[in-house]
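One example given next:
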Amino acid sequence: MSVELKIPVIGESVTEVTLSSWLKKDGEYVAEGESVCEIESDKASMELPAPSGGVLKIMAEAGAELKIGAKIGELDTSAAKPAAAAAPKAEAPKAEAPKAAPVATASSKEVNVPSPAARKILEEKGVDASAVSGSGKDGRITKEDAMNAQATSASKPQAASTAAAKPAAAPGARNVRPEKMTRLRKTIATKLVEAKNTTAMLTTFNEVDLSACMEMRKKYKEAFQKKHGVGLGFMSLFTKACTVALKDWPSINAQINGDEIIYHDYADVGIAVSTPKGLVVPVVRNAESLSLAQIEKEILNLATKARDGKITIEEMQGGTFSITNGGVFGSMLSTPILNIPQSAILGMHNIIERPVAVNGQVVIRPMMYLALSYDHRIIDGRESVSFLKQVKELLEDPSRLLLDV
């Protein structure tokens, strides 16, 4: 008996996907629930689990663009599961007891369990999983960990000999390496150009003194972590400050729909997350009603899923306002592009100690430049500047976030 493998329905607006890679080989036995391949839509990537156990028959090539519902393979469920190796063969003779070191290495691999996609990348790079530190839950090795991993010393001699066999590039050589754009990257490119071409985008700037926020984090960092099981970061403070200001300046949280302006009495805040395949923007729902701890937990959950390729279409749709933090990469100042159909996006940047004037005295303070890009068709200068100024004031006196004043 055979069970068909088909491209599943991923989201309401998704009609076509790319079969990124096969995680199992043709003719290989696959257990029920094991990931067999990775598929990529224009918004996210995901692994396709086997609906039942069986021998895999691959019927679509990696890299193929396929419609929803397309058949990509079969599972022969009548095939017997391969028997495990006999116990006597698995045990080393007592006389060879000194060779116990490899067993310790194997056990360390079991601790850092990689996802199927990560395992495939490590195998291709010749990297020993035991040498990779996993950043996922319970030390699990994520795809990003695998992509960032360096080849082990055991694999270096082989790489060196391979390199030696190739003729050295001549001085001044101008090599090129064509690489097909991923579906996600093509979608990002299309959306960014659309935002530039269809909105009257403008950016206003301000700067914020983060002394009070940093002092609060320093004072309550350990207690916050102990009570809530998550760290107190700047993103939750910025998100909370924005939701408060959005209530007073509703046009920042609005969208154009034809000849109407749609106002929202809630704040679904998109948080830009950089992944190995590109930028995605998962959404924190009803952020205005969440505590700082709840916001931190939700951001951590969504960011982890995004970087592991587990984020769903639904988790990235419907945002009303977005925040992007280029500061984590060292950006001093930028003009973020709108995440259409949203009408505004806040850009955070790196924190730099700079001399500033305070009460007539020059002092050194941790400063950050803020940038608010907005659609000038529905947001006027007074509203954009006032919104950004209010966010600045809330962050410079974060107790106001708790007192709601």
